[in-house]
Design brief:
444 residues, alpha/beta, UDP-N-acetylmuramoyl-L-alanine:D-glutamate ligase, Rossmann fold, ten-stranded mixed sheet, five-stranded parallel sheet
Amino acid sequence: MIEIEPKICLVGDIVIDVSLKNESSDLKMRLGGIIHAARCLWALNIPFSVAYFAPSYLDVQINEYLKHHGCIEIIKIGNIIGAPYVFLIEEVKESGSQGYEFLLRDEINIEYNILGLKKLEENKVSNYLLISGNYDLEKIIKNLNGKIHLDIANNINDISFFEGLTKKIETLFISTSSSIFKKLYQNDFLVFSNKFKTIAEKLILKENRGGSRGINLKENLLINVPAQTQPILHSVGVGDVYDATYVSVYNEKSFEESLFLSSWIATEYATTTYPDDFKLGVTRILSSKISDLITMEGVSLNWEKREKINIYIAAPDFDFVNTNEIDRLVNALEYHNFKPRRPIKENGQMEKEASKSRRQELFSKDMILLDDCSILVAVLLYNDPGTLIEIGLSAAKNIPTIVYDPYSIATNCMLTELPCLISSDLDEIISEVFIKGSKIKFDE
């Protein structure tokens, strides 16, 4: 019998993901952490091994699950004590902030497994994908023999961390939601990427629904990859799937091809939480020519361009109204770096006994603001005349007009058919903003 050698070793935490029940999704619990990347490699039929950290109560389930999904070698390199390693997720689609809560995160302690670490150090795998977590990254990396591909997630807050590394990172994955991005990014990708020139060979920035950018830091080769526009069920672990796909193909395909395939496979993962369905989708993608995938349109809207997009929020944003749904929308747009404009907050709320001149003043200011905006998103809390008129004005001005109808009150055909989209699903609204925003021409 021929022994199959693992092509990639996954290193990191294994946790329990708990997606909390809300109006758009049911309660779901499953293994998370590097298991997301493991599901990807299984779907791609890539031989892999896993070196993991987890509480002992999960070991049996982890071993059974990984063996069932094609893992060749399983090495426990650290035991978690003091916390259950349970990750609560409030918003699975990442319309806005996902509201992560790591139970007892401040109580986490790691007992490193000396035999497991030695086994990992003796491993001859050529590529390691590490997803940063609660463990000592430097301690693990310094004894690995193959090429290091590292996703720094939210556990590394400063570039000074890399000063302690004795070897160069082959691929560094960063997302726009990560701490180090928020701290260092100053609206120029090349300036940002140059900070990592001595640290990594390649840098990949994952920009959520706006696509991704990869740069070969040695050759200054920059690739921009759009995100796919199909509806998603969740975004949990999607970035890890992107990472795993890239690492599995980067030696065999061009930089551009590897990035595009990673984007497509990651999108497929976002459409289901069932591994068998995911594998079937991956099989369909792999049967397509990569050249065809590259030529298909998607959404490409880089982080720094989004803040140039003024979005007029048409809504009864008054101090005597419950504005929770308006706040949800605004927070989601700001999370993705758009610039929502709330006319009533900016220009003032009309007083009950306002004079003619005061009414004219507020009207003029709102119309000037509307003309300064590239997209209008209306929030239907009730049939507010001002909101309905603004929808009509926006459409008449050929401004992309989107209506968020959280309570599904729209029935009039003029109201349902005039906007580009009307939906009670905030995720659909945010996706449409990305689609419309990606078509705006910017002065470079």
